[in-house]
Design goal:
Structural class: mainly alpha
Distance between the termini: 148 Å
Shape: rod-shaped
Order of helices and strands: HHH
Radius of gyration: 47 Å
Number of helices: 3
Oligomer: single chain
Helix content: over 70%
C-alpha cells in the first residue's frame, strides 16, 4: 500500500504537470493572439500616421512648387524689364555716337522717328478702317503705342548746368 500511495501521489503530480502544461499552452496561445491583435492596431495606427505624414509632405511639396513657379515668373519679368532698359540705353548711346556731321544730316536723322511714328499711326488708322477686326486692330494699336512710347518716352531735354 505504501507503494500505491506513492503511485497515487505520483499520478497526481503527473496529472498536475499535464494540467499545468495545458494551461501554459492555452495562456501562451491567448497571449500570442492578444499580441497579434495589439500588433494589428499598432500597425493600423502607424499606417494612419504615415498617411498623414505623406499627405503633409505632399502639401508642402505643392506649396514649394507654387513658390518656385512664382519665383521663376518674377525672374522672367525682371529679365524682360532689364532687357528693355538695356535696349533703351543702347538706343540712346547710338544716337549720341553720331558725332560730327553736317547740320542737314543731323536734322534729317532727327526727323526719322517723328516721320515713322506718323506713318505708323496712319497705317494703324487704315487697318482700323479697312479690316475692322478686333484682334488685328488691337495688335496694330499696341504696336503703334509701344513704338511711340519707345521712341519718345525718355527724350526729355537734359538739364543744363547753370553757371553763376
Amino acid at each position: 500500500m505504501v507503494w500505491r500511495a506513492e503511485s497515487k501521489g505520483l499520478m497526481a503530480d503527473i496529472f498536475g504537470l499535464g494540467l499545468d502544461a495545458a494551461a501554459g499552452g492555452v495562456f501562451g496561445i491567448v497571449g500570442t493572439a492578444l499580441g497579434r491583435i495589439a500588433s494589428f492596431f499598432e500597425r493600423k495606427q502607424a499606417f494612419k500616421h504615415e498617411v498623414q505624414r505623406w499627405s503633409h509632405e505632399y502639401k508642402l511639396h505643392e506649396l514649394q512648387m507654387a513658390a518656385n513657379q512664382q519665383e521663376a515668373e518674377l525672374e522672367l519679368a525682371i529679365a524682360a524689364q532689364q532687357g528693355s532698359w538695356k535696349g533703351l540705353e543702347t538706343s540712346i548711346k547710338a544716337e549720341a555716337a553720331i558725332g560730327e556731321a553736317s547740320k542737314w544730316v543731323i536734322n534729317l536723322l532727327r526727323l526719322v522717328r517723328p516721320v515713322l511714328t506718323i506713318l505708323l499711326w496712319v497705317i494703324t488708322g487704315w487697318i482700323f478702317a479697312v479690316t475692322q477686326q478686333g484682334s488685328i486692330v488691337e495688335a496694330a494699336v499696341f504696336a503703334a503705342t509701344a513704338a511711340t512710347l519707345w521712341w519718345f518716352g525718355d527724350r526729355a531735354p537734359k538739364p543744363v548746368n547753370l553757371k553763376r
